[in-house]
């Protein structure tokens, strides 16, 4: 890993990449940085295109295909489940709903554990192996824990998970338990769990695998790389992405900036980060041009992004400025109606994912995104992660959360005879 080092986003201090730390002495977050002047962009693009469709090994991964800009390690040192390689769909009904003529959805819910987290986790687990860690830990709203538990199982590490009690979707909790994660349900929300896990990791010498870990961000850059490669390196006008702990949009813009500096792309896609109204610290700061202020009691049906104090907000902001980005917020009803459209398009995704489509619609309605713009929305998690939200919407039982089943497709109970069927099909 020549030319690769850790660099503080606040004070520019640098550290060896083999230094197992997450933050700078000054408290700032760290980036994995590399000297791009030593890299030939045209050569990389050719190399990556040559790896497309690799049948086995690390190069068959939609993350490690790009390993020169992820972590340039020998293949045998990589912990992978051949993650990535997710589809990029024409958005169908969701495009009509958003009012867009050229809208695609990148479905990160098609990763091995059903969310985009696997892209960051393959890299985080590889770093854990590099540092010879025995135990790994994370705080999670569910998907990070499912992913970490799976990769830990593959590599034989002990996964310790901190989740907010009663606040994560069942599919995710089920995965964490099934993959063998030691699962601690804390009395508190995600932000409390995030603080606790950092103290625990320091005191008990456990390797932390939240997205404060700079290697996680490196892996997640591959979502953007893969979108571009699927488009034969044509650059969309906009990429829309949900925002919770703000690691994923940080990764997206960091990756795009590297490709741009290497001349692999010659246009910068604009980026829109979409938050839920009840968990919107980045949106509030962006809109009011005010100081960062955490949301103390975040709440949303999109439990994946029920986060009031995102760890990566400084990095996120840096990327948004570079990409001439915007931040938008969407209501509970907007999230669930957009989800109904993503689902009815035959694609399907969990609630937080559908912020991308709800946000697209809102930004088109406001005239910020042109209806003819070339737009890619990122769907971050699988529809099966949160069946309760789906059933609640279609049975119209979410009134307590002020959500109505606008596009509900209710199941119909009938007697077991042909006349009852004929009647129901009328
Ligand atoms: N979408 C889904 C499905 C997620 O699980 C998350 C984050 C996000 C969007 C937001 O991404 O945090 O990088 O801004 N889930 C984390 C977890 C926090 O613990 O699984 P972000």
List keywords for this structure.
37% helix; 426 residues; binds ligand F0G; four-stranded parallel sheet; Rossmann fold; 15% strand; alpha/beta
Describe the structure.
By secondary structure, this protein is of the alpha/beta class. Among the domains are: 1-38; 88-114 and 216-401, Rossmann fold (3-Layer(aba) Sandwich). Helix content is 37%, strand content 15%. The protein contains 14 helices and 13 strands. The chain has a 6-stranded mixed β-sheet with strand order 4-5-13-10-11-12, sandwiched between helices. It has a 4-stranded parallel β-sheet with strand order 8-7-6-9. β10 (238-242), α8 and β11 (270-276) form a beta-alpha-beta unit. The protein is globular, with a radius of gyration of 21 Å.
* Structural class by sheet pairing and helices: alpha/beta
Q: What's the β-strand tally?
A: 13
**If strands are numbered along the chain, what order do they take across the biggest sheet?**
4-5-13-10-11-12
Q: What is the helix tally?
A: 14
**How does CATH name the architecture of the domain at 88-114 and 216-401?**
3-Layer(aba) Sandwich
Cα radius of gyration in angstroms: 21 Å
Q: What distance separates the N and C termini?
A: 66 Å
Give the rounded overall mean pLDDT: 97
User: What would the principal axes of the Cα set say about the shape?
Assistant: globular
Helix content: 25-40%
The CATH class of the domain at 88-114 and 216-401 turns out to be: Alpha Beta
Strand content: 15-25%
* Series of secondary-structure elements, N-terminal to C-terminal: EEEHEHEHEHEHEHEHEHEHHEHHEHH
Largest beta-sheet characterization: 6 strands, mixed
What is the CATH T-level topology of the domain at 88-114 and 216-401?
Rossmann fold
Bound molecules: ligand F0G
Poorly predicted segments: none
């Amino acid at each position: 890993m020549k030319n690769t080092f850790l660099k503080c986003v606040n004070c520019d201090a640098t550290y060896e990449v083999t230094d197992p730390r997450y933050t700078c002495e000054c408290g700032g977050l760290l980036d994995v940085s590399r000297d791009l002047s030593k890299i030939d962009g045209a050569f990389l693009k050719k190399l990556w295109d040559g790896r497309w469709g690799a049948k086995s090994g690390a190069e068959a991964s939609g993350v490690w295909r790009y390993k020169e800009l992820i972590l340039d390690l020998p293949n045998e040192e990589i912990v992978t489940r051949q993650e990535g390689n997710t589809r990029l769909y024409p958005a169908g009904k969701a495009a009509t709903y958003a009012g867009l003529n050229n809208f695609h959805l990148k479905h990160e819910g098609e990763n091995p554990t059903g969310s985009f987290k696997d892209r960051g986790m393959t890299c985080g687990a590889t770093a854990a192996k590099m540092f010879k860690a025995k135990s790994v830990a994370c705080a999670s709203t569910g998907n990070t824990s499912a992913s970490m538990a799976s990769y830990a199982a593959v590599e034989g590490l002990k996964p310790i998970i901190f989740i907010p009690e009663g606040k994560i979707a069942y599919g995710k909790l089920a995965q964490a338990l099934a993959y063998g994660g030691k699962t601690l349900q804390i009395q508190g929300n995600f932000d409390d769990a995030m603080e606790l896990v950092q103290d625990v990791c320091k005191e008990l010498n456990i390797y932390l695998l939240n997205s404060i870990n700079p290697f996680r961000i490196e892996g997640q850059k591959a979502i953007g790389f893969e979108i571009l490669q699927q488009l034969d390196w044509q650059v969309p006008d906009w990429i829309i992405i949900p925002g919770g702990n703000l690691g994923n949009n940080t990764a997206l813009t960091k990756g795009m900036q590297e490709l741009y500096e290497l001349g692999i792309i010659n246009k910068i896609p604009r980026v829109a980060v979409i938050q839920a109204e009840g968990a919107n610290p980045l949106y509030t700061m962006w809109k009011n041009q005010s100081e960062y202020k955490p949301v103390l009691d975040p709440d949303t049906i999109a439990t994946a992004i029920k986060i009031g104090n995102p760890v990566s907000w400084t990095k996120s902001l840096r990327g948004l400025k570079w990409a001439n980005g915007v931040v938008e917020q969407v209501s509970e009803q907007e999230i669930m109606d957009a989800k109904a459209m993503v689902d009815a398009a035959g694609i399907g995704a969990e609630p937080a994912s559908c912020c991308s489509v709800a946000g697209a619609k809102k930004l088109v309605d406001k005239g910020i995104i042109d209806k003819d713009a070339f737009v890619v929305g990122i769907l971050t998690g699988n529809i099966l992660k949160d069946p309760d939200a789906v059933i609640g919407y279609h049975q119209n039982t979410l009134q307590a959360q002020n959500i109505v089943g606008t596009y509900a497709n209710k199941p119909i109970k009938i007697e077991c005879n042909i006349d009852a069927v004929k009647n129901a099909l009328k």
